[in-house]
Amino acid sequence: MRPGLLWRFWGAILEVVRESWRRLWAASLAAAASLLVPLAVGAAGSSAARLAFVGIDDNIYECGGDCARPRCVTCRVQGTEARGAGARLVAFEQPQDDGAAKFAWPTYSPDGHRLACLSSGGKQGRPSYGVYVYDLDKMISTRIFESSTERGIYLFWLPDRERLSFLVTEPDDRLTLMLAEARGDAPIRIVASGVPLYFDWNLKSELLLHTTVTGSGPADRVSLMNVTPTSQDIERVLSRGNAPFKTPCWSPDGAHLAFVASEDDIAHLYLADRDGRNPRAMTKLMVGESSFVWAPDSRHIAFATAQLPPHTVMDGVNLLDVGDGSVKRLVNDDVAAFYFSPDSKRIAYVTVPPEQPFYTWNVIDLRSGKSRKLGSFLTTNEETLAWHYFDQLALSHSIWAPDSSAIAFAGLPIEKPWHGAMPQQPMDTPPPGVMILPIGGGKPRRVADGVLAFWAPVAVANAPAATAP
């Protein structure tokens, strides 16, 4: 990684990104205006796909079809609106607070019919943090959680589609994992606490957990917990000690689980049976923090290691064949994040070009081994945060359209390399936009102003051709 250039660049813009798009691209991004790519107007992605994104006004928007007219899910509604001839008048009910609430991290349910998000604002002069679920078909909103001290930072639907887990930060900076049914009167359950805290759920309501436990000293622990309506017990401890990675997870078919553990200060990627039995080291890992994601067909695992602090850029991407244990080198460039397509045939990945303050989307075909550049772009703070935790988010959020035809991202595309010194004087530039980028070729299509976007994991038969709010 080239920390001097990259972190000088981000130090100048990260805070202004969070507050207002009008200040987002000031100072070091000013010269980007002359490099913007003209945007195509063709559609990409399945016509039955749904896309949710965070607008520059901190509201959540959602659309189906070609996403030509996104509807605002979290905007305050003046009066009511009808859904079709003869339909009863319904509207999303929004949180009542002292000022404008901010919404973040939209998360589709596994069937794509509901959308959860986090909120932050003020209520009676105090901070107010919440978790909301929106029924996209009935246009009904439900508040699942509210607190003045515990702020939600991550959402994860359980595979049963009826329960939602979420991470909150406590006043002492400790992380707590909570679990609730996706209805307003449901009790909220504390499942685990610790720092760090990464996890995955399976269909049997078992929790695969990576966190830190205290004893003679803090140490990483990867464990398997059985969560029932009346109990939650550790069934098996898979590893103790140094575990230089983030997220353990089951294979999509539920047959195996994967995690990283160290023995004699050497880290390996391990596979075990679905219940944690018969762990076996599959491949040795480089020194640093490793990340991995399963292919949706469960036949491969892509993995990479960030060797230098702050562990934000990884040294290429490798592919493990789960069947025969062979490892293939896929990418040699510095990589910020990588994502399997839903059909398991490709991997989209973000590279960090040398000495350039922008990023590049690429895609590699796993059968041919050929990679192709999709385009370069300036990014948003929200996108870079998602990249840092991409292996956890891969279990709950998708940048891929469900038919594997396109990816979605937020930022500003550019068409040629950035040469010379970074500019010092601010100038007006366009706001960041939500882009749909076709994998088969073509320019990205701008959907709307926005800072972060995710697809529903499946196509939804009655996904609406979205209307304006």
Summarize the structure in short.
The chain has 469 residues and is mainly beta.
Order of strands in the sheet with the most strands?
22-23-24-25-26-27-28-29-30-31
Strand content: over 45%
Name the CATH architecture: 7 Propeller
- Which structural class fits the helix and strand makeup? mainly beta
Helix content: under 10%
CATH topology: Methylamine Dehydrogenase, Chain H
Given as residue ranges, the uncertain stretches (5+ residues, pLDDT < 50) are 1-45, 78-91, 421-427, 465-469
Which helices and strands, and how do they pair?
Blueprint: H1 3-19, H2 21-24, E1 50-54, E2 60-64, E3 71-72, E4 81-82, E5 89-90, E6 102-108, E7 114-123, E8 126-135, E9 140-147, E10 151-157, E11 163-169, E12 175-181, E13 189-194, E14 197-201, E15 206-213, E16 219-227, E17 232-240, E18 249-250, E19 256-263, E20 266-273, E21 280-284, E22 289-294, E23 300-306, E24 314-321, E25 327-340, E26 346-351, E27 359-365, E28 371-378, H3 381-388, H4 390-393, E29 406-414, E30 433-438, E31 445-449, E32 452-455
Antiparallel strand pairs: 1-2, 1-32, 2-3, 4-5, 6-7, 7-8, 8-9, 10-11, 11-12, 12-13, 14-15, 15-16, 16-17, 18-19, 19-20, 20-21, 22-23, 23-24, 24-25, 25-26, 26-27, 27-28, 28-29, 29-30, 30-31
